[in-house]
């Protein structure tokens, strides 16, 4: 009896996996960007040039979306080589010891027409925290070459110090050189496999 239950459970898992549709990242049309306050008078903006991910969903409304994303910290780009080097160092990401930022979803909830909350674990350096990301589904289309593509966008904020990005330099007048709150925008285009 126990063997039959195990066989049935394994069969159900295989059937679920077989029906889940795999999607791959269209890196040429996707972007992960951020901005942080600089001296309280402007923002410094940047992005990561290299990242990868895996995505699957069996339901057409995406309510069973599974997503993992790994960002190459060494691909950070703020259009200033010296600043990029500082961001890769131990004051911030310590890219040598922690070369990736990782996100792995745990659940998704539809909250409106094309609006979702994607829950998951975000790891920066050696700190992992549960996060809830607002996500807008921008639709699914066929491109001119017959590929099915889906677009998603997430914007939000995190406190960099919560993840061990500890730099606390101050200007001569006392203002923080870099603000603690970092805004991010994740624009992803996925290609159906």
What's the arrangement of secondary structure elements?
Blueprint: H1 2-19, E1 21-25, E2 31-38, E3 42-48, E4 51-57, E5 66-72, E6 76-77, H2 81-88, E7 100-112, E8 115-124, E9 127-142, E10 148-159, E11 181-192
Antiparallel strand pairs: 1-4, 1-11, 2-3, 2-11, 3-6, 4-5, 5-7, 7-8, 8-9, 9-10, 10-11
- What structural class should be given to the helix and strand makeup? mainly beta
Question: How does the major sheet shape up?
Answer: 8 strands, antiparallel, barrel
CATH architecture: Beta Barrel
CA-based shape: elongated
Q: Would you tell me which CATH topology applies? A: Lipocalin
Please report which band the strand proportion falls in: under 5%, 5-15%, 15-25%, 25-35%, 35-45% or over 45%.
over 45%
Helicity level, as a percent range?
10-25%
Following the backbone from N to C, one meets helices and strands in this order, namely HEEEEEEHEEEEE
Query: Major sheet: order of its strands?
Result: 1-4-5-7-8-9-10-11
Q: What is the total tally of β strands?
A: 11
Rounded mean pLDDT score: 89
> How many structural domains are formed by the residues?
1
